[in-house]
Amino acid sequence: MKTNNPLVKQSKAQLAPLGKIESRTQFGGYALTVEKVIFAYINEDALYLRASEALQVYHTQRTLEPLVYRKRGMPVQLNYFKVDDTLWQDSEQLLQLSASALRAAQQELATRSVTLRLKDLPNLSLRMEMMLHKVGISSVRLLYEMGSRQSWLKLRAVNKHIGLKTLMALEGAISGHHQAALPTAIREELYAWYVKTLHRTNTVEQA
User: Fold this and answer.
1) CB distance 172 to 122 below 8 Å
2) pLDDT tens digits for 76-127?
3) What percent of the chain is predicted at pLDDT more than 70?
4) Are residues 12 and 109 in the same domain?
5) Is 173 found in the same domain as 146?
6) Structural domain contains residue 91
7) What residues in the chain have per-residue pLDDT under 70?
8) In the chain, at which end, N or C, are there fewer CB atoms within 10 A of the end residue's CB?
9) d(CA 198, CA 206)
10) Rounded CA gap, 42 and 49, in Å?
11) Does 143 lie in the same domain as 69?
12) Dihedral of the CA atoms 105, 30, 32, 24 (nearest 10)?
């Protein structure tokens, strides 16, 4: 997605050797991805890298601040660590740690994709798994790659009764949350997209 956030632009430029970096809003900030695999977050004007073996070694030498967000009023620490000023100034080290973060994320995704079925994800039942199979989303990896919105659109194309609850359930399945525990910013963003999409669809159908 396009964004005018200066830190997103800076991160993409500095980490360009990793591949084509894309960004999407998530948890009130931005997730950075390469081939749809999340390896970093930007939150409150700070870049956080996913934990990896190399980052843990660096962390023992220089303590890095973890990414924390609030879930139902309680602080939750995520497995991401803040890029401080010293690391920003060491572009070679930053790139190496970012590459390590990406590899760790890719390995975890590959492992989860092999061992998990769609029905094993939060919010998804056997019935939902069968519905996703019918629209060509036959694995956890494909669901992750497709994302909640595109997956919902595929389901909606064959079943007009698919609504907002399913969209929230898909997002939660991908992010590892029960749909009721999705962060408020994500729920609001998805609701706005849902309303806009329905309006656009209804306009086209009435034309």
Assistant:
1) yes
2) 788 899 999 999 999 999 999 999 999 998 888 777 666 678 998 899 999 9
3) 92
4) yes
5) yes
6) yes
7) 1-3, 27, 71-72, 112-115, 203-207
8) C
9) 12
10) 9
11) no
12) 110
